[in-house]
Write a structure and sequence with these properties.
This protein is an alpha/beta fold and about 375 residues long. The chain has 12 helices and 13 strands. The strands form 3 sheets. A 7-stranded mixed β-sheet has the order 2-8-7-6-5-3-4, with helices on both faces. It has a 4-stranded antiparallel β-sheet with strand order 9-10-13-12.
Length: about 375
Amino acid sequence: MSAPQTAPIRPTPRPGVMAIDPYIPGKSGAPGSTKVHKLSSNETPLGASPRARDAYAATAAKLELYPEGSAAALREAIAGRYGLDPARIVCGSGSDEILSLLTSAYVGPGDEGVYSEYGFLVYKIGILAAGGTPVPVKEKNFTADVDALLAAVTPRTRIVFLANPNNPTGTYLPFDEVKRLQAGLPKHVLLVLDAAYAEYVRRNDYSSGLELVSTCDNVVMTRTFSKIYGLALARLGWCYAPAHVADAINRIRGPFNVNGAALDAGVAALADEAHVAASVEHNERWLPWLTREIGATGLEVTPSVGNFLLIHFPRTPGRTARDADAFLTARGLVLRGVAPYGLPDALRLTVGSEEANRLVVAALRDFMAKGQPGA
């Protein structure tokens, strides 16, 4: 006769929840530094549009009111900007929420979710939270491999995530490759194109995926206001989806999932095209400069189309990514360690202000020269 089971002495999460590694954001500070340049979270150095800031501040006069629950004004503004059907747009508290809603709606226990090995950590977290099994897929030269992604699909696969461009590598897939991926997937598998950095890309063979969403029943594209629009604090994102997918996630999202200040700021940010153009111009100037100058120090840099760079460090004691992180932090330069992504020998650098960019390059030169003969 088996012994009676003892009842738990407190509420316990369902199996698997406590096995999820929590998402750890990039560092924000550098203890002891008089001035800190935060280059760890891919935030725009130009900040938010003045119009967006004014719109955000104006909501203080109506804090007692609920926001408009369907985000109608913002959906109309997005639709007007890109020529889309507003009924197929869903807004969220950052694109993170949209990604989680999609996973919750389409993945359950016994299902699998596929993503490239250096993809955004939220994919794995969302799949596990839904009770599914994450399936990371090897990349080639820090770039998603369509053939490998398709080979990883099984009868249990329900969702495939593709960050394009990818964070933290900065690499991308040409649109022809994205179309090939979609064409090779079973029709019941949802392809999620995470285009958080789309506005920065200046390549003729790139597309965010709006065309695929317009013509396919199993493709969703997600976007964010956190990057080029500078509204990271407001938490605002959106997706364009087939009508049946939009209907599904509208049924499970919170009734007021986006706050009113974020909604108003988003509408204003979309209208300020000159501010976005200035952000693109700044990135176009400094991204290649940083790539070239950091490469000249002897460090390897993965070519990027985003507003950040992945810098690779040797494993030589005193020259490792961990050593570099400590060295830079002591100078008030805060980069992002990417060991949780499986990249312990690299740091991710956001394209910052001119001052920050020049300081980083000078610091890396000093770091690489430190202790060398004749230095």
